[in-house]
Amino acid sequence: MVFSATPARIVNWLLLATVMFLFFRVEIYQEKHKHVITFDVYEYYSYLPRTFIEKDPTFAHWDENPSQAWIHRTEGGTGVSLKMSVGMALLYLPFFWVAHALAPAFGYPATGFGIPYEFGIFFSMWAWLGIGLYYLRRLLERYFSAGVTALTLILVVAGTNMDWYLFMRPGMTHPYTFALSAAFLWHVIRYAEEPSGRRAVALGLLLGIISLIRPTNILLGLFLPLYGMQHWRELPAQVGRWLAQPGHIVRLLGGIALVWLPQWLFWRATTGQWLYYSYQDEGFFFANPQLWEGLFGYRNGWLLYTPVMLLAIAGIAVLWWRWRAWFWPVLLFLPVFTYVALSWWCWWYVGYGNRAFIDIYAVLAFPLAALLTWAWEKRGRGAVMTGLALLLLAHNVFQTLQAKNNMIHTSAMSKEAYWAGFLSLEKPKTYWKMLEFPDMKNAKQGIYTIKPKP
Length: 454
Fold this sequence. Notes:
By secondary structure, the protein is mainly alpha-helical. The chain has helices at about 5-25, 40-50, 85-100, 115-140, 145-160, 165, 175-195, 195-215, 225, 235-245, 245-270, 290-295, 300-305, 310-320, 325-340, 360-375, 380-405, 415-420, 430-435, 440-445; strands spanning about 70-75, 80. A two-stranded antiparallel ribbon has the order 1-2.
């Protein structure tokens, strides 16, 4: 087979090379910085050293080193549980084994922590990003030109808040779920074209790991009956096609169950329950979704910090005219996902931009590419659209630099602080006084107030 250096393939490799360069440039893995295995990643990862090094897979002896994970006692004090699932640990696992094998050879203790293991986490993210870009490229090339595909890939990676989680916070779930979502969508199309039990299993395995990592991502399953629908009246027929294949449904559910099995076994061993809600006092407030603030607010409003996705939303209308098979699934999925994501008690999700939406960038790549295609059909219109897209990309890169300089707070950004530092890389002298810290205790009750300033 002769390798064809298509524009999109070249872009994929350039994006991967850039991410690696920036990771080593920023040196987030060094002790003087904030590390890779920190915050949420610490708990995702903690299953691995506990199981394979400390031989304590149920965290029975966690009291001896309680700092290694956010562990809590279950009701009645009969066991312990972790807030995060085992999903990310499954994706880290091959890279953890390699790091563990190589650590002594490079003079590092094989403790599960330290630079070799930090590199292991980064390379796991880098590899999964490559998988995601591969599947997304193949998806887009089925419908769009080489140029549109290449530009869309650039915009999705460099023009959104995903860039922050590639080299500043590698190991967080979002690049992984982006990749898994792209692979899932690919198999949705392939199943629609040629239904088979094997493809049903693949869909189940992918939907299983996506939902195990972040349960709300089970909503991607809506694409199973919705993809290919030309009119909303066809929905019963679409569902009927699935119901007419009970063997495939069993295989799909079996794939999901297989991935979830380690989590069920862990819960059973640590809590005595097969199903356990590990988030304790954190939950959803479906009667009080923070839609406007979550989309446009200064505290990590998705479209404020990732405005290129406004183009993707506009592109949904283009799908109606040219790619109807994608119109209904995207149109119905996006509002449902947005409603659920912004009903979470911590709707700002603590980070740079509203990171919950990174998980669905593979979905939004379709309307984004559709809009670019529509624009490029006329030279003048295409030049304007391309210029606007690149301007929004540059704006995102600049805001990422601001976040790196601690000018965009992870949870307390205010209108005053945002505009005081707008188009500047120097933090305003009164920056900390401008911030508005949310009252986390009230937020867990669905009441969103600001802590009084001292």
